[in-house]
Amino acid sequence: MQYVSTRGSAPALDFEGVTLAGLASDGGLYVPAEWPRFSPDEIRAMRGLAYPDLAARIMAPFVAGSLTEDELLALTHKVYGDFGHAAVTPLVQLDAQHWLLELFHGPTLAFKDVALQLLGRLFETFLARRDQRLTIVGATSGDTGSAAIQAVAGLERVEIFMLHPKGRVSDVQRRQMTTVRAPNVHNLAIEGSFDDAQAHVKRMFTDSDVIHTLNLGAVNSINWARLMAQVVYYFASALQLGAPERTVAYSVPTGNFGDVFAGYVAAKMGLPIERLIVATNINDILHRALSAGDYSADGVTPTITPSMDIQVSSNFERLLFDAGGRDGAAMAEQMRAFEASKAMQLTNAQAQGASALFTSARADQVETARALQWAYRAAGQVIDPHTGVGLHAARALADAGTVPAGVPLVTLATAHPAKFPDAVERAVGMRPALPARVGDLFGREESFVEIAGDYAATRDYVLGHAGNA
After folding, report:
1. Domains of the chain, earliest start first
2. Which is the catalytic residue, given 78, 112, 202, 419?
């Protein structure tokens, strides 16, 4: 399997290459040169597979040439045998049409674990093969950071610098990062928003002073390997609900667009997906882009769903590239203009290509709280506010007939409610407890460094503290 950049001028790489590279050298994101596709019979044959076996079956075409089937299967069994639920990503029914897909049974209680636990093992495998070290620089709006740190803490060949926006992640999210005491882990709290942190990270990958000094890698969903692993739970849930004979729709709480783009990949691979609902909070650039073609940033407003307080969604570029005809030169020019002005209109081809599968909805904080209340009172389920955004969108679009009544509608439950106890308690009147395996989180000592919000401060800190500089 070969991978190409969305911006057209970076060299094509194999799976091992894109896993270690993260961002393409031309500033683009890697995607497969062509989408592998399963027939209905092949999908039907996946029914009943345990999650690790299904994961190896789904991911095999993407890793071809870099891992053997036996190597991949050994990795998936090692990774997914350590989750807090035997099903790894269990389905929970809310009513006749609505379901939750619980993605928070990994070590840091968020959907990022499903992919990042695998990515850590892939780094270990490929770096040992090459006898290399890797410096990971990442940005987090909350959950990616803790999941990435958990995945690589203590690894000999990997060092990680994780940026989070100071004061804009929950206490649980922050502590899950800053209480990990491993010599290869560096936590940086920067002034500004997640978008600022993400911009610093992307800039480092094209900064000649940095890339000539450090072997950089990425754990954000700009890394294809992470996104690939997220495709699996779409297949797992759809198979349980009747695929391939029955279509399934999904509502996805969306910030950086990686999780919902994984659903798009699943559809490209042959999974019968009725609709993908992009659910946003009031920082609704993606809702505006998909409903009106207007991809224009207008500032970030902090909310009770901090992981979605984003205006620049990196993975949206992957959709625009694929849906718009895979013209790398045109994509590069379009993104250069957006990076300069923070405003962009989707082309007709991009808008039409996206509308074939995607729709969108936004939820304000009152609507989000009402979704938490409905889940608790109607189905006895306590959900986190990000999941609440997704559930609000799912119920609104089902009521509007956008998703037909006979189609199961699955909301991705992206985080354990105990990661956002204040918001949950305000909505439903009870405070969710942390699972026993992380119950001592608030008794652990924190360690992090506060730095200014400008790029130079980030770059200088990483260059000054990286062990392989």
Report:
1. 91-110+225-428 (3.40.50.1100)
2. 112
